[in-house]
Write a structure and sequence with these properties.
Alpha-Beta Plaits; five-stranded antiparallel sheet; disordered N terminus
Length: 186
């Protein structure tokens, strides 16, 4: 036996077998990052992602405490569980970052997104666009004889579904805010 009491040829505790303990499954996580509201902080956070080849699916940022000079960055990203843990750890090491919360694993959260959707059409397509907007509770915020601009809020999946239904009806342009999210409860 070797000094580590591992039988020769055994892969149970072999360094070559560690890969089986890691997951290759891609997961989507929503991260809430509270940062000092100072120049360059957003660039440093984004630099962390781009420098390591991580993708950002959605990014929103706004000041949440004027007196405390604190901003909240909400990032939706996708990766293996190991990559997500690495992202959280690296974010936590950036000096102006006060807190990093993974809303996906910390319990329930509320996620909403706002989108403005321009649809061009006439006749039946125009009527169908208005009917679908009513079903999705989208509001008409601008109207001409040739087009509508709809405003819709909801989960990213709801916005995606509405956009997909508008494509064959004359979708012209889409502007989305990105995800804003808060954890449920206190």
């Amino acid at each position: 036996m070797s000094p580590l009491n591992i039988k020769k040829g055994s892969t149970k505790h072999s360094a070559y077998n560690l890969r089986s303990t890691f997951s290759d499954v891609q997961e989507t996580h929503t991260l809430a990052v509270l940062v000092a509201n100072e120049p360059g902080v957003l660039a440093r956070v984004i630099g962390l992602f781009s420098g390591r080849g991580y993708n950002i699916d959605s990014l929103t940022v706004a000041e949440v405490d004027h007196a405390g000079h604190t901003s909240r960055i909400t990032i939706v990203t996708t990766g293996t569980p190991q990559v997500i843990e690495q992202i959280k750890a690296q974010l936590g090491r950036i000096v102006p970052v006060h807190e990093v919360h993974d809303l996906t694993v910390e319990g329930g959260s509320v996620e909403r997104e706002l989108a403005l959707i321009k649809v061009e059409g006439s006749g039946e397509k125009r009527v169908e666009a208005l009917r679908l907007a009513d079903i999705f509770r989208a509001q008409v915020v601008d109207s001409t004889l040739e087009s509508f601009v709809f405003q819709i809020t909801g989960t990213p999946e709801k916005v995606d579904a509405f956009v997909d239904l508008m494509r064959p009806l004359g979708l012209v342009e889409v502007a989305r805010t990105g995800v804003a999210a808060l954890s449920r409860g206190v």
